[in-house]
């Protein structure tokens, strides 16, 4: 995937004065005896696009899932808008995910039995919206992702890139304040991945939605304004991607550091 002028524009838009919407403090999480997070702290501002990077097994997905309220940390706190997510019940966290937090995975997981438009309308319907209004919103969101004409089709009739754009529309239809995306372009070819990221970052910027993207691809991380690099369950680095000339930059600074240091065989292995 080659960085483009569109992504340079997005990367330049830092949000230093925007309020913090989400914080994770001293997050610890293990799976049995395997530690995944060993005390991770981070904060995300409104409208900020943040890449969570690091080698395989460094804890990226676990951090994302803890911040999204899908997983409960063993210790530490997640705060969203003054609410301690990590202390909420499962039903309270589910409600929050239907309203303020959007989650998107590598494979969009559209419901095959529903049309694309019904899929996108689903979070609104689950939230109690009327069918007609929900379908109208779904159609508008599909339009923003350039797939409005596919609303009547079923997911199986769409390409992978089209399905993932519909999945992004579904994740954003409730206008969440934070969108959590785990390898959102992982199943797409370079062009489809780049189109998706360009649209996703543009729409997020328009809506003031913060986006956290887990990725092991430098080209994807280069779409972010900030990069949180994990290493063995801890934060190795957290900083702006310093991208005034992002279009000329093949990858993010932190990935460049990985390339230089070389001990992370798993990262190179993954690039294959
Ligand atoms: N459900 C689980 N059960 C057991 N161990 C898990 C589970 N999820 C994660 N782990 C372990 O926790 C550690 C961190 O995993 P995590 O998936 O968060 O890393 P990651 O950086 O996202 O990796 P990748 O890039 O390979 O997806 C790894 O050692 C992993 O094997």
UniProtKB/TrEMBL annotation:
Residue stretches spanning the membrane: none
Q: Name one GO molecular function term.
A: ATP binding
Q: Which Gene3D superfamilies match?
A: P-loop containing nucleotide triphosphate hydrolases
InterPro entries per the UniProt record, alphabetical: AAA+_ATPase, ABC_transporter-like_ATP-bd, ABC_transporter-like_CS, ABC_transpr_LolD-like, MacB-like_ATP-bd, P-loop_NTPase
Q: Which UniProt keywords apply?
A: ATP-binding, Nucleotide-binding, Transport
Q: Where is this region: Disordered?
A: 242-272
| Record-annotated ABC transporter domain positions | 22-257
For the keyword Chloroplast, the answer is: no
From the Swiss-Prot or TrEMBL record, give the protein name. Answer: ABC transporter ATP-binding protein
């Amino acid at each position: 995937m080659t960085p483009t002028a569109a992504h340079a524009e997005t990367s330049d838009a830092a949000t230093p004065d925007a309020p913090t919407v989400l914080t994770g403090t001293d997050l610890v999480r293990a799976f049995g005896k395997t530690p995944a997070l060993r005390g991770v702290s981070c904060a995300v501002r409104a409208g900020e696009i943040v890449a969570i990077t690091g080698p395989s097994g460094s804890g990226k997905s676990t951090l994302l899932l803890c911040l999204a309220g899908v997983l409960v940390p063993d210790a530490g706190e997640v705060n969203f808008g003054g609410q301690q997510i990590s202390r909420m019940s499962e039903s309270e966290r589910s409600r929050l995910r239907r309203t303020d937090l959007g989650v998107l995975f590598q494979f969009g997981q559209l419901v095959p039995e529903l049309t694309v438009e019904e899929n996108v309308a689903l979070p609104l319907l689950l939230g109690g919206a009327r069918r007609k209004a929900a379908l109208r919103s779904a159609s508008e969101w599909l339009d923003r992702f350039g797939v409005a004409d596919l609303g009547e089709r079923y997911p199986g009739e769409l390409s992978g890139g089209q399905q993932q754009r519909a999945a992004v529309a579904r994740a954003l239809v409730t206008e969440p304040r934070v969108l959590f995306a785990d390898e959102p372009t992982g199943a797409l070819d370079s062009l489809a991945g780049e189109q998706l990221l360009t649209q996703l970052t543009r729409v997020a910027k328009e809506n003031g939605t913060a986006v956290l993207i887990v990725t092991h691809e430098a080209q994807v991380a280069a779409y972010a304004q900030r990069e949180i690099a994990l290493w063995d369950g801890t934060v190795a680095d957290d900083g702006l991607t310093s991208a005034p000339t992002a279009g000329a930059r093949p990858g993010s600074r932190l990935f460049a550091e990985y390339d230089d240091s070389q001990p992370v065989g798993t990262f190179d292995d993954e690039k294959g």
